[in-house]
Amino acid sequence: MSSAAAGATAASRAHASVNDTVRVACVGLRGRGNDNIKGWEAQPNVEIVALVDVDQSILDTRLKEVESKTGKRPKGYTDVRKMLEDKSIDAFSIATPNHWHALMTIWGCQAGKDVYCEKPRLTISSRRSR
Predict the structure, then answer these.
(1) What beta strand segments (E) does 33-128 contain?
(2) Where are the beta strands (DSSP E) in the chain?
(3) pLDDT tens, 20-53?
(4) If you average pLDDT over every residue of the chain, what do you get?
(5) 10 Å Cβ neighbour count for 20?
(6) CA–CA gap between residue 50 and residue 63 (Å, rounded)
């Protein structure tokens, strides 16, 4: 990158507006979901505004962790459908058991949200495939 381009990029970041901030929610907060939280926290112009988990105790733990790291407490939900009603949320990531992925992705698209969902990995050995 040229020094002029680097300067322009730095200047545009310094003048980023609130409208340039992506407001995200994380659904499913254990293993991979906690990784998603850390990934979103590391991104510039991303604010974690909501966390969703059916287990109230893990939800409370993650809410405290995000608040202590970012200084802002996200909204907490135990029902993803309630989170989807929030028009201020731009996008969400799904880290739930696989059988929820398709339905939550469809609901998210219907609600006008961007959705990040990893598909499960399938590995078949060469011996088994014969």
Answers:
(1) 46-52, 75-77, 91-94, 114-117
(2) 22-27, 46-52, 75-77, 91-94, 114-117
(3) 899 999 999 999 999 999 999 999 999 999 999 9
(4) 85
(5) 11
(6) 9
CA atoms of 60 and 116, how far apart (whole Å): 23
Distances (CA, A) of 19 to 38, 42, 52, 65, 90: 22, 19, 24, 26, 11
Which amino acid type is present at position 111? A
Q: Give the integer Cα–Cα distance in Å for 97 and 75.
A: 22
In whole angstroms, give the CA distance from residue 84 to residue 114.
11
3-state DSSP assignment of residue 74 = coil
> Residue 24 burial by CB count (10 A; 0-12/13-18/19+): exposed, middle or buried?
buried
| Contact by Cβ (8 Å): 51, 29 | yes
**pTM, full prediction:** 0.78
Distance, CA of 95 to CA of 129 (rounded, Å): 29
Name the amino acid, one letter, at 115.
Answer: V
Strand-pairing partners, residue 27, are 52, 94
Phi, psi of 46 (to 5 degrees): -125, 130
